[in-house]
Design goal:
Layout (H helix, E strand, L loop, with lengths): L9 H11 L8 E3 L7 E6 L3 E6 L2 H17 L10 E5 L9 E5 L14 H16 L19 H12 L7 H13 L8 E3 L8 E4 L2 E5 L6 E3 L7 H4 L6 H8 L3 H22 L4 H26 L14 E3 L5 E3 L1
Antiparallel strand pairs: 1-2, 2-3, 3-5, 4-5, 6-9, 7-8, 10-11
Protein backbone atom coordinates (compact mmCIF):
# COMPACT_ATOMS: atom_id res chain seq x y z
CA UNK A 1 0.00 0.00 0.00
CA UNK A 2 2.85 2.39 0.83
CA UNK A 3 6.01 2.59 -1.25
CA UNK A 4 8.15 2.45 1.90
CA UNK A 5 6.14 -0.32 3.57
CA UNK A 6 8.11 -3.17 5.14
CA UNK A 7 7.12 -6.81 4.62
CA UNK A 8 5.56 -8.51 7.64
CA UNK A 9 4.18 -12.03 7.89
CA UNK A 10 3.20 -14.49 10.61
CA UNK A 11 6.59 -16.21 10.53
CA UNK A 12 8.38 -12.92 11.26
CA UNK A 13 6.01 -12.23 14.15
CA UNK A 14 6.69 -15.68 15.62
CA UNK A 15 10.44 -15.09 15.44
CA UNK A 16 10.17 -11.65 17.02
CA UNK A 17 7.98 -12.92 19.85
CA UNK A 18 10.13 -16.00 20.48
CA UNK A 19 13.31 -13.96 20.61
CA UNK A 20 12.01 -11.23 22.90
CA UNK A 21 9.30 -12.97 24.92
CA UNK A 22 10.03 -16.72 25.08
CA UNK A 23 7.12 -17.22 27.50
CA UNK A 24 4.78 -16.57 24.53
CA UNK A 25 6.77 -18.51 21.93
CA UNK A 26 4.26 -21.37 21.70
CA UNK A 27 1.16 -19.19 21.29
CA UNK A 28 -0.55 -19.28 17.88
CA UNK A 29 -0.12 -16.23 15.63
CA UNK A 30 -2.90 -15.07 13.29
CA UNK A 31 -3.06 -11.97 11.06
CA UNK A 32 -6.12 -9.82 11.71
CA UNK A 33 -7.85 -8.41 8.64
CA UNK A 34 -8.54 -4.69 8.76
CA UNK A 35 -8.47 -1.58 6.66
CA UNK A 36 -5.57 -0.22 8.68
CA UNK A 37 -2.77 1.38 6.70
CA UNK A 38 -0.21 2.18 9.41
CA UNK A 39 0.18 -1.06 11.39
CA UNK A 40 -0.06 -4.79 10.89
CA UNK A 41 -1.90 -6.46 13.77
CA UNK A 42 -1.63 -10.13 14.70
CA UNK A 43 -3.53 -12.04 17.34
CA UNK A 44 -1.22 -13.83 19.77
CA UNK A 45 -3.01 -16.61 21.58
CA UNK A 46 -6.39 -15.80 23.13
CA UNK A 47 -5.53 -12.72 25.17
CA UNK A 48 -2.88 -10.71 23.29
CA UNK A 49 -2.23 -8.90 20.02
CA UNK A 50 1.04 -7.87 18.39
CA UNK A 51 1.13 -4.52 16.63
CA UNK A 52 3.90 -3.77 14.15
CA UNK A 53 4.29 -0.46 12.27
CA UNK A 54 4.42 -0.81 8.50
CA UNK A 55 6.42 2.39 7.94
CA UNK A 56 8.89 4.59 9.79
CA UNK A 57 6.20 7.21 10.37
CA UNK A 58 4.03 4.56 11.96
CA UNK A 59 6.87 3.63 14.30
CA UNK A 60 7.00 7.20 15.59
CA UNK A 61 3.23 7.23 16.08
CA UNK A 62 3.41 4.16 18.33
CA UNK A 63 5.74 6.03 20.68
CA UNK A 64 3.10 8.75 21.03
CA UNK A 65 0.40 6.23 21.88
CA UNK A 66 2.52 4.49 24.49
CA UNK A 67 3.42 7.83 26.09
CA UNK A 68 -0.07 9.30 26.42
CA UNK A 69 -2.58 6.43 26.64
CA UNK A 70 -1.86 5.62 30.31
CA UNK A 71 -2.69 9.23 31.24
CA UNK A 72 -5.78 9.51 29.05
CA UNK A 73 -7.37 6.11 29.73
CA UNK A 74 -8.74 6.77 33.25
CA UNK A 75 -10.95 9.61 31.99
CA UNK A 76 -12.44 7.79 29.00
CA UNK A 77 -15.84 6.01 29.04
CA UNK A 78 -14.78 2.99 26.93
CA UNK A 79 -11.97 0.48 26.85
CA UNK A 80 -8.75 1.60 25.16
CA UNK A 81 -5.60 -0.38 24.28
CA UNK A 82 -3.27 -1.50 27.05
CA UNK A 83 0.38 -1.98 26.16
CA UNK A 84 1.64 -5.15 27.85
CA UNK A 85 5.19 -5.17 26.49
CA UNK A 86 7.41 -3.59 23.86
CA UNK A 87 9.89 -5.32 21.57
CA UNK A 88 12.91 -3.93 19.75
CA UNK A 89 14.08 -4.11 16.15
CA UNK A 90 15.23 -7.65 15.33
CA UNK A 91 15.05 -10.41 12.71
CA UNK A 92 15.37 -7.82 9.95
CA UNK A 93 12.38 -5.84 11.22
CA UNK A 94 13.63 -2.25 11.70
CA UNK A 95 11.43 -0.70 14.40
CA UNK A 96 10.04 -1.14 17.88
CA UNK A 97 6.79 -3.11 18.12
CA UNK A 98 4.31 -3.72 20.90
CA UNK A 99 2.12 -6.35 22.52
CA UNK A 100 -1.38 -5.32 23.63
CA UNK A 101 -4.20 -6.97 25.50
CA UNK A 102 -6.88 -8.44 23.24
CA UNK A 103 -10.14 -6.47 23.33
CA UNK A 104 -13.36 -8.26 22.42
CA UNK A 105 -15.71 -6.67 19.91
CA UNK A 106 -16.25 -6.09 16.21
CA UNK A 107 -15.65 -3.02 14.09
CA UNK A 108 -18.96 -1.43 13.03
CA UNK A 109 -19.95 -1.35 9.37
CA UNK A 110 -21.87 1.58 7.93
CA UNK A 111 -25.34 0.53 6.86
CA UNK A 112 -25.31 -2.44 9.24
CA UNK A 113 -25.54 -0.86 12.69
CA UNK A 114 -27.75 -2.58 15.27
CA UNK A 115 -28.33 0.50 17.43
CA UNK A 116 -27.34 3.58 15.42
CA UNK A 117 -28.95 6.12 17.75
CA UNK A 118 -27.30 4.64 20.82
CA UNK A 119 -23.98 4.34 19.00
CA UNK A 120 -24.21 8.02 18.05
CA UNK A 121 -24.65 8.93 21.71
CA UNK A 122 -21.79 6.64 22.75
CA UNK A 123 -19.47 8.25 20.22
CA UNK A 124 -20.49 11.71 21.38
CA UNK A 125 -19.75 10.75 24.98
CA UNK A 126 -16.27 9.54 24.02
CA UNK A 127 -15.53 12.66 21.96
CA UNK A 128 -16.64 14.95 24.78
CA UNK A 129 -14.54 13.02 27.27
CA UNK A 130 -11.51 13.47 25.01
CA UNK A 131 -12.30 17.13 24.49
CA UNK A 132 -12.65 17.78 28.23
CA UNK A 133 -9.54 15.87 29.30
CA UNK A 134 -7.22 17.97 31.46
CA UNK A 135 -3.97 16.10 30.83
CA UNK A 136 -1.31 18.76 30.29
CA UNK A 137 1.54 18.98 27.79
CA UNK A 138 0.08 16.91 24.97
CA UNK A 139 1.52 16.91 21.45
CA UNK A 140 -0.28 18.46 18.51
CA UNK A 141 -3.08 16.23 17.23
CA UNK A 142 -2.42 14.80 13.79
CA UNK A 143 -5.54 16.51 12.43
CA UNK A 144 -5.84 19.26 15.02
CA UNK A 145 -4.47 22.00 12.77
CA UNK A 146 -6.49 24.39 10.55
CA UNK A 147 -7.94 22.83 7.41
CA UNK A 148 -5.81 25.19 5.34
CA UNK A 149 -2.84 22.96 6.13
CA UNK A 150 -4.26 20.28 3.82
CA UNK A 151 -5.83 22.65 1.27
CA UNK A 152 -3.33 22.03 -1.53
CA UNK A 153 -3.35 18.26 -1.00
CA UNK A 154 -7.16 18.15 -0.90
CA UNK A 155 -7.60 20.22 -4.06
CA UNK A 156 -5.01 18.11 -5.89
CA UNK A 157 -6.86 14.93 -4.89
CA UNK A 158 -10.19 16.36 -6.05
CA UNK A 159 -8.68 17.18 -9.44
CA UNK A 160 -7.18 13.70 -9.69
CA UNK A 161 -10.58 12.17 -8.98
CA UNK A 162 -12.22 14.50 -11.51
CA UNK A 163 -10.34 12.62 -14.23
CA UNK A 164 -10.55 9.14 -12.68
CA UNK A 165 -13.08 6.42 -13.44
CA UNK A 166 -15.14 7.28 -10.37
CA UNK A 167 -18.71 8.44 -9.83
CA UNK A 168 -17.53 11.76 -8.44
CA UNK A 169 -18.91 15.31 -8.67
CA UNK A 170 -15.73 17.35 -8.49
CA UNK A 171 -17.45 20.73 -8.66
CA UNK A 172 -19.69 19.93 -5.69
CA UNK A 173 -16.66 18.61 -3.81
CA UNK A 174 -14.79 21.86 -4.46
CA UNK A 175 -17.78 23.87 -3.22
CA UNK A 176 -18.05 21.73 -0.09
CA UNK A 177 -14.34 22.09 0.58
CA UNK A 178 -14.45 25.86 0.12
CA UNK A 179 -17.35 26.12 2.57
CA UNK A 180 -15.35 24.14 5.13
CA UNK A 181 -12.32 26.40 4.64
CA UNK A 182 -14.55 29.45 5.14
CA UNK A 183 -15.81 28.26 8.53
CA UNK A 184 -14.57 30.24 11.51
CA UNK A 185 -11.37 28.66 12.83
CA UNK A 186 -10.96 27.20 16.29
CA UNK A 187 -9.95 30.03 18.63
CA UNK A 188 -10.32 28.46 22.07
CA UNK A 189 -7.61 26.62 23.97
CA UNK A 190 -6.37 23.43 22.26
CA UNK A 191 -8.43 20.35 23.19
CA UNK A 192 -7.58 16.67 23.12
CA UNK A 193 -8.71 14.71 20.06
CA UNK A 194 -8.26 11.12 18.92
CA UNK A 195 -8.09 12.44 15.32
CA UNK A 196 -8.61 9.10 13.53
CA UNK A 197 -12.10 7.87 14.42
CA UNK A 198 -12.46 5.54 11.46
CA UNK A 199 -14.80 2.53 11.81
CA UNK A 200 -11.76 0.22 11.87
CA UNK A 201 -10.61 1.98 15.06
CA UNK A 202 -13.91 1.34 16.87
CA UNK A 203 -15.27 -1.80 18.50
CA UNK A 204 -18.93 -2.47 19.24
CA UNK A 205 -20.90 -5.18 20.99
CA UNK A 206 -24.69 -5.49 20.71
CA UNK A 207 -24.67 -2.20 18.85
CA UNK A 208 -22.95 -0.16 21.56
CA UNK A 209 -19.47 1.34 21.51
CA UNK A 210 -17.19 -0.71 23.75
CA UNK A 211 -13.66 0.32 22.74
CA UNK A 212 -11.66 2.83 20.73
CA UNK A 213 -8.35 1.71 19.24
CA UNK A 214 -5.21 3.23 17.71
CA UNK A 215 -4.32 6.42 19.56
CA UNK A 216 -1.20 6.94 17.46
CA UNK A 217 -2.47 10.32 16.19
CA UNK A 218 -3.85 11.57 19.50
CA UNK A 219 -3.04 15.09 20.64
CA UNK A 220 -4.37 18.58 21.22
CA UNK A 221 -5.69 21.19 18.81
CA UNK A 222 -8.99 21.84 17.05
CA UNK A 223 -11.26 18.92 18.08
CA UNK A 224 -13.43 19.19 14.93
CA UNK A 225 -11.59 16.24 13.36
CA UNK A 226 -13.28 13.88 15.83
CA UNK A 227 -16.69 14.56 14.23
CA UNK A 228 -15.89 12.39 11.19
CA UNK A 229 -18.07 9.42 12.32
CA UNK A 230 -21.06 11.58 11.36
CA UNK A 231 -20.15 10.87 7.74
CA UNK A 232 -17.99 7.73 7.77
CA UNK A 233 -20.29 5.59 9.92
CA UNK A 234 -23.56 7.05 11.24
CA UNK A 235 -26.68 7.17 9.05
CA UNK A 236 -28.09 10.61 8.18
CA UNK A 237 -31.07 10.01 10.47
CA UNK A 238 -28.80 10.08 13.53
CA UNK A 239 -26.67 13.11 12.65
CA UNK A 240 -28.81 15.67 14.45
CA UNK A 241 -28.84 13.54 17.61
CA UNK A 242 -25.08 13.04 17.36
CA UNK A 243 -24.49 16.75 16.89
CA UNK A 244 -26.78 17.64 19.81
CA UNK A 245 -25.03 15.11 22.03
CA UNK A 246 -21.51 16.20 21.08
CA UNK A 247 -22.53 19.89 21.50
CA UNK A 248 -20.68 21.81 18.79
CA UNK A 249 -21.44 25.02 16.93
CA UNK A 250 -21.94 25.42 13.18
CA UNK A 251 -18.33 26.36 12.51
CA UNK A 252 -16.96 23.28 14.28
CA UNK A 253 -19.49 21.08 12.48
CA UNK A 254 -18.45 22.57 9.13
CA UNK A 255 -14.77 21.99 9.88
CA UNK A 256 -15.51 18.42 10.93
CA UNK A 257 -17.27 17.79 7.64
CA UNK A 258 -14.28 19.35 5.91
CA UNK A 259 -11.93 16.88 7.60
CA UNK A 260 -14.18 13.98 6.57
CA UNK A 261 -14.09 15.17 2.96
CA UNK A 262 -10.36 15.85 2.92
CA UNK A 263 -9.51 12.44 4.34
CA UNK A 264 -11.78 10.66 1.86
CA UNK A 265 -10.67 12.42 -1.31
CA UNK A 266 -7.01 11.99 -0.37
CA UNK A 267 -7.44 8.32 0.53
CA UNK A 268 -9.44 7.24 -2.52
CA UNK A 269 -6.89 7.86 -5.30
CA UNK A 270 -4.05 6.66 -3.06
CA UNK A 271 -5.67 3.36 -2.01
CA UNK A 272 -8.19 2.65 -4.80
CA UNK A 273 -6.08 -0.17 -6.27
CA UNK A 274 -4.49 -1.52 -3.08
CA UNK A 275 -6.94 -1.30 -0.17
CA UNK A 276 -10.59 -2.11 -0.98
CA UNK A 277 -11.75 -1.45 2.60
CA UNK A 278 -10.34 2.07 2.72
CA UNK A 279 -11.49 2.76 -0.85
CA UNK A 280 -15.06 1.70 -0.13
CA UNK A 281 -15.13 3.80 3.03
CA UNK A 282 -13.78 6.83 1.15
CA UNK A 283 -16.45 6.53 -1.55
CA UNK A 284 -19.13 6.29 1.13
CA UNK A 285 -17.82 9.37 2.96
CA UNK A 286 -17.69 11.41 -0.24
CA UNK A 287 -21.31 10.50 -1.04
CA UNK A 288 -22.46 11.37 2.47
CA UNK A 289 -20.56 14.66 2.68
CA UNK A 290 -21.74 15.89 -0.71
CA UNK A 291 -25.33 14.83 -0.01
CA UNK A 292 -25.33 16.64 3.33
CA UNK A 293 -23.75 19.68 1.68
CA UNK A 294 -26.56 19.79 -0.88
CA UNK A 295 -29.18 19.33 1.85
CA UNK A 296 -27.75 22.23 3.84
CA UNK A 297 -27.80 24.49 0.79
CA UNK A 298 -31.44 23.59 0.12
CA UNK A 299 -32.32 24.39 3.73
CA UNK A 300 -30.61 27.76 3.38
CA UNK A 301 -32.55 28.51 0.18
CA UNK A 302 -35.77 27.71 2.02
CA UNK A 303 -34.78 30.14 4.75
CA UNK A 304 -33.81 27.51 7.31
CA UNK A 305 -30.05 27.93 7.58
CA UNK A 306 -27.64 26.36 10.06
CA UNK A 307 -28.17 26.84 13.75
CA UNK A 308 -25.87 29.76 14.49
CA UNK A 309 -25.25 31.27 11.08
CA UNK A 310 -24.50 29.88 7.64
CA UNK A 311 -22.31 26.96 8.64
CA UNK A 312 -20.31 29.21 10.92
CA UNK A 313 -19.00 30.71 7.70
CA UNK A 314 -17.67 34.24 7.66
CA UNK A 315 -19.47 36.07 4.87
CA UNK A 316 -19.29 39.74 3.90
CA UNK A 317 -21.84 42.27 2.75
CA UNK A 318 -21.43 45.88 1.75
CA UNK A 319 -22.63 48.56 4.15
CA UNK A 320 -24.18 51.81 2.97
CA UNK A 321 -20.82 53.52 3.48
CA UNK A 322 -19.13 51.17 1.06
CA UNK A 323 -17.22 49.28 3.76
CA UNK A 324 -17.48 45.51 4.13
CA UNK A 325 -18.43 43.86 7.35
CA UNK A 326 -18.47 40.26 8.46
CA UNK A 327 -21.91 38.75 9.03
Amino acid sequence: MHADETDIDADLVRRLVSGRFPQWADLPVERLTSGGTVNAVYRLGDTLTVRLPLTERGAKDVEREERWLPELAPGLPVTVPTVVATGEAAEGYPWAWSVHRWIEGESPVEGHLDEPELLACDLAEFIKAMRNTHVEGGPSAYRGSPLAKVDAQTRAAIEELRHAEEDFDADTAVAAWQDALAARPWSAAPRWAHSDLMPSNLLVARGRLTAVLDFATVGVGDPACDLIPAWNLLPPSTRDAFRDAVDVDDATWARGRGWALAMAVIQLPYFRNTNPIISASARHVIREVLASQCADRQETLRGHGPRDGPGGIIRFEASTSGDRRAV
